[in-house]
């Protein structure tokens, strides 16, 4: 379901909260949204053979100096619940700041990496080196 940006963030917050309770997965994908190219291609046909490795002849060529700002399509999926929003290129930085704040608040179930004690490992190496040097010395 395509919603506005604030509706997407609130819906994503609900999905993340539910996934924290029942340990389910939320998948968020981002891709460039280019409706003009999709309209030019027409409906997608099923392919029977694997696609060729050569570039397609109907693909739009990249022209230097002709950079356009394309909107982004962001999707979130949890089970059968689907959310999506279209973010304009000009609004992406503000959206990303709100999105990252939301992720920091909701991703509390992640475990922190265990810190290794450097002193203990350095001490163990020095003991091992002393034992090796003691074995080599008496000849």
From TrEMBL:
Record's GO cellular component terms: signal recognition particle, endoplasmic reticulum targeting
GO biological process, one term: SRP-dependent cotranslational protein targeting to membrane
One Gene Ontology MF term: endoplasmic reticulum signal peptide binding
Subcellular location: Cytoplasm
Skewed-composition ranges (Basic and acidic residues): 31-48
InterPro entries the record matches: Signal_recog_particle_SRP14 (IPR003210), Signal_recog_particle_SRP9/14 (IPR009018)
Keywords, alphabetical: Cytoplasm, Ribonucleoprotein, RNA-binding, Signal recognition particle
Superkingdom field: Eukaryota
Database matches in Pfam families: SRP14
Residue ranges of the region described as Disordered: 19-71, 119-139
Family: Belongs to the SRP14 family.
Physiological role: Component of the signal recognition particle (SRP) complex, a ribonucleoprotein complex that mediates the cotranslational targeting of secretory and membrane proteins to the endoplasmic reticulum (ER).
Subunit architecture: Component of a fungal signal recognition particle (SRP) complex that consists of a 7SL RNA molecule (scR1) and at least six protein subunits: SRP72, SRP68, SRP54, SEC65, SRP21 and SRP14.
Name listed for the protein in its UniProt record: Signal recognition particle subunit SRP14
């Amino acid at each position: 379901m395509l919603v506005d940006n604030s509706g997407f963030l609130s819906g994503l917050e609900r999905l993340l909260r539910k996934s924290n309770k029942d340990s389910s997965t939320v998948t968020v994908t981002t891709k460039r949204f280019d409706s003009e190219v999709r309209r030019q291609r027409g409906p997608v046909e099923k392919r029977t053979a694997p696609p060729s490795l050569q570039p397609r002849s109907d693909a739009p060529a990249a022209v230097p100096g002709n950079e356009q700002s394309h909107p982004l399509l962001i999707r979130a999926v949890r089970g059968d619940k689907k959310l999506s929003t279209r973010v304009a290129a000009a609004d992406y930085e503000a959206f990303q700041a709100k999105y990252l704040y939301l992720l920091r608040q909701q991703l509390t179930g992640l475990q922190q990496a265990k810190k290794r004690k450097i002193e203990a490992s350095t001490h163990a190496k020095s003991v091992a080196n002393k034992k090796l040097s003691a074995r080599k010395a008496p000849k």
